[in-house]
Design goal:
This protein is of the alpha/beta class and 301 residues long. It is 51% helix and 12% strand. The chain has 2 domains: 91 residues, lambda repressor-like DNA-binding domains (434 Repressor (Amino-terminal Domain)); 196 residues, Endonuclease, Chain A (2-Layer Sandwich), CATH 3.30.870. The radius of gyration is 21 Å and the shape is elongated.
Length: 301
């Protein structure tokens, strides 16, 4: 049954609430996608839906894309317009609205956390698979505190010590999702250049390499090294992150970070393009076993 044909019932809402419980960000996106699906199934145009709640087509677009938090009265009015009468379904949506407006743990770092990056953390908290490629640095989810501190000092050379500490603390807290129960599967492709770059000095890098070895042995983590000797590893010269979810109403998302901003792509053609780039990198990189041997060998020298 296609996503557009699936009924939105009490059982499906309970599943969404359970799977999205770690992330208000994901809950807001799922809620918006469900509202879009139900509006289209009811044959109602976005402009008419907007007028029904005293807004506009643009407001409906923002709600359905998860760009803004939903207000419960607006959602309840829209559901009635879309023909929803089941009290349990209405109650499930009300709970989703409530959870979507909660603060994620990462929001206590608002002073050092821009909205565009906070969204990534919220999505990672709900992801079932995080597939990432890094060319310059070790992926943030796999960094040690000392390595993260060295990276942060390079990126924010004028920052006060308190700000540096907050940024490092945020990064360390992000790592917790890899060791929680039902952790997402992390598939990290790391360019060999990132391992050769002595960020923080020799001792920091050796500790970082040991940490990579430890993490690569976790059943939920897969590490591949993209060797400098393999020309196909030049398929992408910039970081790419592909997020996949166990939520039928939350599509795959590609995250592309720039200096001071980021793009989130979810159109199927966009996702497929970057997924194919990651596939090429995966095939060109050392296998997980070979990558582990490379890391272990580097520690012996």
């Amino acid at each position: 049954m296609s996503a557009s044909a699936r009924p939105v019932d009490k059982e499906s809402l309970e599943y969404y609430l359970t799977v999205s419980s770690h992330s208000p960000t994901a809950m807001r996106l799922v809620l918006g996608n469900l509202l879009r699906r139900m509006r289209k199934q009811a044959g109602i145009e976005a402009e008419a839906a907007g007028k029904h709640i005293g807004g506009s087509e643009a407001k409906i677009s923002r709600l359905e894309r998860g760009h803004v938090a939903c207000k419960e009265p607006d959602v309840m009015d829209l559901l009635v317009l879309y023909g929803v009468r089941d009290e349990q379904v209405l109650a499930g949506f009300a709970q989703m609205v409530h959870l979507s407006k909660q603060s994620g743990w990462w929001q206590r770092y608002d002073g050092v956390l821009p909205d565009w990056f906070g969204k990534l953390i919220g999505l990672q908290e709900a992801a079932s698979v995080i597939r990432t490629y890094e060319v310059q640095l070790v992926p943030g989810l796999l960094q040690t505190a000392d390595y993260a501190r060295a990276v942060t000092r390079l990126g924010y050379p004028l920052a006060a010590q308190d700000e540096i500490d907050d940024r490092v603390d945020l990064r360390m807290n992000r790592r917790a999702l890899l060791t929680r129960s039902e952790a997402p599967h992390l598939w990290a492709i790391i360019d060999e250049a990132a391992l050769r770059r002595p960020v923080g000095g020799e001792q920091v890098m050796r500790a970082q390499m040991r940490h990579l070895v430890d993490m690569a042995r976790l059943p939920s983590v897969r590490v591949q090294i993209a060797p400098l000797s393999e020309p196909r590893c030049a398929a992408a010269g910039f970081p790419i992150t592909h997020l996949r979810f166990d939520l039928p109403d939350l599509p795959d998302i590609i995250y592309l970070e720039q200096l001071g901003n980021a793009d989130y792509l979810d159109r199927p053609d966009q996702v497929e393009h970057y997924r194919s780039v990651l596939d090429t990198l995966c095939l060109a990189s050392l296998s997980p076993k070979e990558s582990l041997h490379l890391l272990e060998g580097a520690l012996r020298h």
